[in-house]
Amino acid sequence: MKRILLIFFLSLFFIQCKNNGENAEQKMYPIEPDGGIGNGAPSLDQAFTEAVESAHHKKEFMNEEAVSFDIRLNFGGQERVAGKLTMLTNSGKIRLDKKDGSQLIFDGNSLYLSPKDADDKNARFDAFTWAYFFAMPYKLNDSGVNIKPLGDLQLNDTLRDALKMTFEAGTGDSSDDWYVVYLNEDKTLNTAGYIVTFGKTIEKAEAEPHAIVYSDYKTVKGIPLATNWKFYNWTQEKGIEGTPIGEATLSNFKFINLSEDFFNKPEDSKRIE
């Protein structure tokens, strides 16, 4: 009898070990055996997305109408952008008031630069890129975005949970862009490796990938917001390389309600294609 019981308990032990091994890659995400096709728990990519959104309090963020913050960004020792960025929390409209007095306004359909004679170099890039980097944790579930969980990836000396973002053709200005996003232990964003294909071929973009490192999170109305961005040369194989090539400081965060005409085209403006 004792021999039979011993065999029974050993069998249970090995079954449990096998199950633990099969479930290791699922981490904290509840998924169904069929990948979430049926009713019940979400698929792994959905669960991953929901974990990031929960960590960044997406529900509370989206309950606000708009957010504004001061941004000061430098690349190569030169000031690149300085001003106040205001956007709807759903990213549907964006306004960048620069310290030189010029404005970039996306009214939901078209982008305008004011005044007409202001420097329009990089206008479209500046209007959308910095707003997207800020809103990235809330963009994983957007239409046209594809998410692929990558499991634990080595980023320099640390293993981090990671995902890859790609875009369906026709999504945004540069649907060939992609991001490899690394997470902190609490599932907030730590680093995003990326390519920028705006104004260049995908081959050239993939030859010079970069990374943005999010740090110094500050909680505003319960919502964690990174106040420091550092930019580096990066590859998925080698991780972050060298010293920062750029840095941005974000401050004076405010969740606000706006007047109906806040994103209207100024009189002295021109449309940016």
Topology, please?
Elements: H1 2-23, H2 44-55, H3 58-63, E1 66-75, E2 78-88, E3 94-98, E4 103-106, E5 111-114, H4 123-135, E6 145-155, E7 158-167, E8 179-183, E9 189-194, H5 202-207, E10 210-220, E11 223-235, E12 239-256, E13 270-272
Antiparallel strand pairs: 1-2, 1-12, 2-3, 3-4, 4-5, 5-13, 6-7, 7-8, 8-9, 9-10, 10-11, 11-12
Give the total of beta strands: 13
Bin the helical content: 10-25%
Overall residue-averaged pLDDT value: 86
Biggest sheet record:
13 strands, antiparallel
Percent of residues in β-strands: 35-45%
Largest sheet, order of strands side by side?
6-7-8-9-10-11-12-1-2-3-4-5-13
Give an overview of the whole structure:
- The structure is a single chain.
- Helices cover 22% and strands 41% of the residues.
- The protein contains five helices and 13 strands.
- The chain has helices at 2-23, 44-55, 58-63, 123-135, 202-207, and strands spanning 66-75, 78-88, 94-98, 103-106, 111-114, 145-155, 158-167, 179-183, 189-194, 210-220, 223-235, 239-256, 270-272.
- A 13-stranded antiparallel β-sheet has the order 6-7-8-9-10-11-12-1-2-3-4-5-13.
- The longest helix has 22 residues, at 2-23.
- It is globular.
- The protein starts with a helix and ends with a strand.
